[in-house]
Amino acid sequence: MKPFTVHTGIVGTLDRVNVDTDQIIPKQFLKRIERTGFEDALFFDWRFLADGSPNPEFELNQPRFAEASILLTRANFGCGSSREHAPWALDNYGFRVVIAPSFADIFFNNCFKNGMLPIRLSEEQVEELFQRTKAKEGYQLTVDLEEQTISDNDGLQIKFDVEPFRRECLLDGLDDIGLTLQHEDKITAYEAKLAAA
Amino acid sequence: MAQTLFDKIWDAHVVHQEPGKPAILYIDLHLVHEVTSPQAFEGLRLNNRKVRQPEKTVLTVDHNIPTWSRSIPVTDPISKQQIETLEKNAADFGLTIYSLNSPQQGIVHVLGPELGYTQPGMTIVCGDSHTSTHGAFGSLAFGIGTSEVEHVLATQCLQQTKPKNFLITVDGKLPVGVTAKDIILYIIRTIGTDGATGYVIEYAGEAIRNLSMEERMTVCNMSIEAGARAGLIAPDEKTFEYLRGREFAPQEEAFETAVAKWKTLPTEEGATFDRELHIDAAQLVPQVSWGTSPGMVADITGNVPDPEAMPDENSKKAARRALEYMGLQAGQPMEDVTIDRVFIGSCTNSRIEDLRAAAAVAKGRKVAANVNAMVVPGSQAIKAQAESEGLDKIFTEAGFDWRESGCSMCLAMNPDVLSPGERCASTSNRNFEGRQGAGGRTHLVSPAMAAAAAVAGHFVDVRKF
Ligand code: SF4
User: Fold this and answer.
1) What's the distance, Cα to Cα, between the start and end of chain A in Å?
2) Is the CB of B83 under 6 A from ligand 1?
3) How far is the CA of A155 from the centre of ligand 1 (A)?
4) Which of B210, B241, B400, B429 pairs with A88 at a CA distance of 20 to 30 A?
5) Cα-Cα-Cα-Cα dihedral of B96, B99, B105, B109, to 10°?
6) C-alpha–C-alpha distance, residues A21 and A25, integer Å
7) How far away, in angstroms, is B107 Cα from ligand 1 center?
């Protein structure tokens, strides 16, 4: 897994609650058997019109967000289906960080497995970031996982929480399976106990 | 200290726990389907890893497959590739697969319980959020992503942080015409689609105890729509009777030993929950969703709500968007909403009892001229059972299309798709934008309500039928 330490990038906004993984990546793109190539599928039904051209009404299609790598959105982001294609599509498109007041559990978990950082902030903090992004074209944030801070160039600094273990894995880009297999003796012992029961 | 059902299952499966780190949790049963697994098997190959416990791993195809006659080949080349990929993975790694032509093929969450793989006290995972269905047996069952599918294949374990306990008690008796689907829709409507995020829900109370196993599965199935990690119901005599004699359940003496163990699982008197909610079953009426999120639900006797009456700006915006997408007007009576399609199926409501309930309404009646209705059994076994009871005849005589088993129009990855603007009464679990086809409009209802809507051509209170 690729490590995550510090990331600076343009913020793109998606001002909606309950964005589900069916919207993040509609089902017709789930038939691929690879983990890559999902960038054009991201938010497909919202991003493109029926004729395939970009939908000018869709927030992230604004030219000012073209280079965005930090997604700022509303509560319960990533609800619905467990499809890991959702973080893959966000990642393939170029997002490294998602900031929201809350996330659905499976999506939240899936992000960490792919070197992406989902950050939970309070509703007020998220609203503040929405205002700042709106006010300034090309608004950027720096997300520092080591320090657990988000900062902009205008003096804003926000501390964020992340589970220590997840932080450690992301900073070092650790392979989960490898970590579990360090305890293989314990798994074997557990299985022996099961067989004896 | 008195323990909950969830605490007991959790504790029994912790292989290793270090302070400040997630537990390494042992997984008893891993269900696998064609859509969320190819990348996981590929990962195993790249790292030269094997499947640690092939006999705890069960594969089926369901999401992608057409529901037309099994004698007609799969035409979509990419679906075909996913099915063939799963078959190849089964062969390469030595795993059991119920593929397209198996007489036991079914939707993964229908098949597990039906074949007796799902048992009380187990930990069960699948790369699918509706794995929560299996919680109806008092097993801890939850959905995982593809990276975790690979993790379980390789280690038979997962790294998990323990969620919190949430008790939802449904007191009293359900009125006639009100079903398990209405209970769970009402719960989601009450607590919201993120109302149980971070929790495992245990459903209890008289109304839950009175539900059949099929109905309990409907309730647990949609726990994920309330954001929960899993939903659980304590095992009891109904659970044991359901499992007795099923192919992969313990047999004879081993079964009695298992039952004795399963009886120790229920939550103990005095155990505490992090959160509790009480619902009075007697006041429930049939529910219909009106929006594009499973929390956007109204009574059939009610009206489409007014977005401007919503409590905050975010919900107002969401409701305005939803009404626009759904082509509905605030204040419109739910019973006035006309439909084009009906879908009876999905892992929420495609079991034999669901089909019986729908058939009871459809019997001797005709599907309205403006409606195209289909029934998709959850498995080949259910299809055969329904046919032996003559349910297929009731449906086809009423004008329903009778199909082969699969996920079908629950997520419309196969050829069963809504056209843009088409409105569907659906017994599935998600009414997200485009879920049943781009531009399609989904209303979630119970099987009886779906059948009644098919006949009336619009939503109608099934209690009047
Ligand atoms: S029936 Fe629908 S919800 Fe259930 S597993 Fe299939 S696609 Fe998922």
Assistant:
1) 38
2) no
3) 47
4) B429
5) 70
6) 6
7) 7
| pTM assigned to the model | 0.96
Angle between helices B213-221 and B180-191 (to 10 degrees): 20
Q: Among residues A195, A191, A5, which one has the least CA distance to residue A97?
A: A5
Where chain A has pLDDT below 50, the residues are none
| Residue from B48, B314, B414, B430 whose CB has the most chain A CBs within 10 Å, to mutate | B314
Residue B315: count of CB within 10 angstroms of its CB: 18
- Residue spans of the domains in chain A: they are 6-196
Asked if the interface predicted TM-score (ipTM) of this complex is over 0.90, the answer is yes
pLDDT for the residue A43: 97
Strands A6-14 and A140-144: antiparallel
Q: Is there a contact between B246 and B116 (Cβ–Cβ < 8 Å)?
A: yes
B401-402/B372-375 β-pairing:
parallel
Number of Cβ within a 10 Å radius of residue B275: 15
Closest Cα partner for A22 from A84, A80, A99? A80
Structure tokens at A64: 């000012």
* CA B64, chain centre distance (Å): 17
Helix (H) or strand (E) holding B58: strand B57-60
Average pLDDT over residues B318-342: 98
pLDDT at A34: 86
d(CA B59, CA B108): 8
Quote the CA–CA distance of B143 and B44 in Å, as a whole number: 20
Q: CA torsion angle for B1, B6, B11, B15 (degrees, to 10)?
A: -170
The answer, yes or no, to whether any atom of ligand 1 lies below 6 A from the CB of B128, is yes
Query: pLDDT tens across B199-230, in order?
Result: 999 999 999 999 999 999 999 999 999 999 99
Alpha-carbon distance of B5 to B273, in angstroms, equals 11
d(CA B227, CA B194): 5
Q: Is domain A6-196 annotated with CATH 3.40.50.11030?
A: no
pLDDT tens digits, B249-282 = 999 999 999 999 999 999 999 999 999 999 999 9
Report the C-alpha gap between B224 and B130 in whole angstroms: 7
Q: Which residues pair with B424 in a beta bridge?
A: B341, B442
Phi-psi region of B55 (alpha: psi -120 to 50; beta: other; left: phi over 0): alpha
